[in-house]
Amino acid sequence: MSVTRRQILAGLAGVSALGLGAGGARYWLGRPEGAKTHDYELIAAPLDVELVPGRRTSVWAYGGQAPGLELRARQGDWLRVRFVNRLPEPSTIHWHGIRLPLEMDGVPYLSQLPVLPGESFDYRFRVPDAGSFWYHPHTASGEQLGRGLVGPLIVEEREPTGFRHERTLSLKSWHVDGQGVFGEFSVPREAARGGTPGRLSTVNGEASPTLELPAGQVVRLRILNLDNTLTYRLNLPGAEARVYALDGNPVAPHPLGREYLLGPGMRIELGLRVPAVGTALPLRNGPLRLATLKSVDSGETAADWPAALPANPVPEPDLAAATSLRFNFEWAAALSVNMEQGGAFKFWQINGQAWDINDRSCAERPIATLQQGRSYIFELRNVSQYQHPIHLHGMAFKVLDSNRRKIDPYFTDTYLLGRNETARIALVADNPGVWMFHCHVIDHMETGLMAAIKVA
Ligand code: C2O
Ligand code: CU
Ligand code: CU
């Protein structure tokens, strides 16, 4: 199951150079007709930015920005990204929510070896589903994501949708002080609770920005939670907004309602009817303003609500024939740590097992083995006082029901499991490999709340 450096190098030799310059990232707009590959060179490197006015913060950027460059591809096409590591430490890229082969999944030692400083790695895969996805490392996640290595990956529908305008809003908070200096990304006493929050909230790397939107149009807002810890209580008071997709899969359009809980790793796509010129709408997290949406003259005729987005080709689980498995997400009081021996804090566990982030052999002991092609129902039981955005790599799953709220079944890659909630999800185990199954509160994932699920 593990990968050797020789295999990686052999793999690289087979790919011809993309011929891109030293620019942060470049998109081949002029690609020939029918050549269905979207090519990028994506450099990860330190970068000084101004998060706090008048102060420099040394972040880690993808393509010269943090959050990273927005990558785009079209559904059914290939995406090729040459990842160049100019960071001071090893890294990988994981493509959150994309159904792809294990070798492209970015999990160190399982998918590939970590990409060392000065090295590069070519990711190449087909994107089967349209929607809002994202990318991030799967190495030293607390610090690497915390320093800014998170970015949107947008997969456009094959056919035009009714939306003529769209905006991507990447939400992230930063673990910086008032001088813009990074503090701890993870504090044990917080990791054992809800996770260590950042102090400075930003949208697209800016604190409380004003975004101009075309008056009278229905704009597609892709809101991505790229934060390590925070669950945003999203609300748009006074706005006419409808939900079009959750976590990269379309839903029947319905009003946003009072608020939506967007956990780490989750995404929501809204249709927003932009009001008359001069109106300013707040996008908020609970009572806190994240951004101001300002209507400006567009010179276009008013648009109507677009129809539902086309469904993605996710296989429908056969519930009658499905095998049920239960997963308990628990708080493990055991503060047993042995830092000298490279042990990690273990505050959390799944079915009595805590993942050890420093132990490469964990993936060799999958918590469940699924038979390829069969349908499964997972009963997810949160027996803790904290919520956990539960994420699975490699396959989308359908949320069936919950003991805490009414669910209209929908496909997703991340489900926010509330405290003491039991929910059922279902999937077809159609992607062979060993897939990470974890909480996306990075602190939780790094202190035990991760497991491997094998499909064979
Ligand atoms: Cu966003 Cu293991 O993933
Ligand atoms: Cu993922
Ligand atoms: Cu969690």
Automatic annotation (TrEMBL):
Any Pfam family the entry gives: Cu-oxidase_3
Domain Plastocyanin-like: 53-159, 351-455
Stored SUPFAM superfamilies: Cupredoxins
PROSITE patterns found in the cross-reference section: MULTICOPPER_OXIDASE2, TAT
Record GO cellular component, one term: outer membrane-bounded periplasmic space
Domain of life the protein comes from: Bacteria
Keywords assigned: Metal-binding, Oxidoreductase
InterPro entries: Cu-oxidase-like_N, Cu-oxidase_C, Cu-oxidase_fam, Cu_oxidase_Cu_BS, Cupredoxin, TAT_signal
Keyword ATP-binding among record annotations: no
This protein's record includes keyword Glycoprotein: no
GO molecular function: copper ion binding; oxidoreductase activity
Name assigned to this protein: Multicopper oxidase-like protein
Organism in which the protein naturally occurs: Azotobacter vinelandii (strain DJ / ATCC BAA-1303)
Lineage: Bacteria, Pseudomonadati, Pseudomonadota, Gammaproteobacteria, Pseudomonadales
